[in-house]
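Example record

One chain of 162 residues, shown exactly as stored in the release files.
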Amino acid sequence: MDKQTVTLSARLGELLLNRHATVTCAESCTGGGVASAITHIPGSSQWFQLGLVTYANSAKQQLLGVSPDVLATEGAVSEAVVVEMARAVLALADADISVAVSGVAGPDGGTEAKPVGTVWFCWMLRDGSPIARCFRFPGDRVAARAAAVQQALLGLIELLDN
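Predicted structure tokens for this chain:
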């Protein structure tokens, strides 16, 4: 794991520990990278219970209750889908904060509207409104996934810092 990701994970763990808070995640294109980064930090069992990798649309529907209609109309890489993912995993884990990630890591699968490197995120506090943002990360599949993991962690840190 690269140094910046470890630094972000450690900072997140420190914030969660100080606030006696827990985090959870629902991932698609990052394939468990966010959960791996969080659990890389010793003591993470104090602030992390579960993360789900819902790579396929059927998994998003079955495990997180993402609406088939939303998937059909908006696509898996959309604000509507990550909001549903973040809300569902937050409730499932009974956590204080969640992040959901869905994107097009490549090298295939991109479109003109959603080119390779397009990733949607949603961060949500238990008692808050969802914060959804879309990013376009340059580079190949490995670079896009690594950048997405770091952005997921950064968003969690920013939400806890505010």
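Notes: The chain has a mean pLDDT of 96.
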